[in-house]
Amino acid sequence: MKIDKKIVALLASYGRSVLAGALSLYIAGVTDPKALASALIAALLPVLIRWINPNDPAFGRVPTAVEVDEAIKTAKPVAAKKATPKK
Q1: Number of folded domains in the chain?
Q2: pLDDT tier at 61, thresholds 50, 70, 90
Q3: What is d(CA 9, CA 60) in angstroms, rounded to the nearest whole number?
């Protein structure tokens, strides 16, 4: 079974968020299990935001090779503008 590197990176990011959230609450003296569980759930939000964002280079949706090939085939060349000399 091959595990996608993007999924592993996503889970590692979530793990860091969870650890930071729960640890900061615990160090602050919050030991209520409900509050700690809420921190675990809240830690998921930043990771989800990055995953939803298609422009995020780490977790966002990236085009497939087929989509890139299609974009290259349909691209129209644009003439470069000549630089005007400064006076």
Answers
A1: 1
A2: low
A3: 12
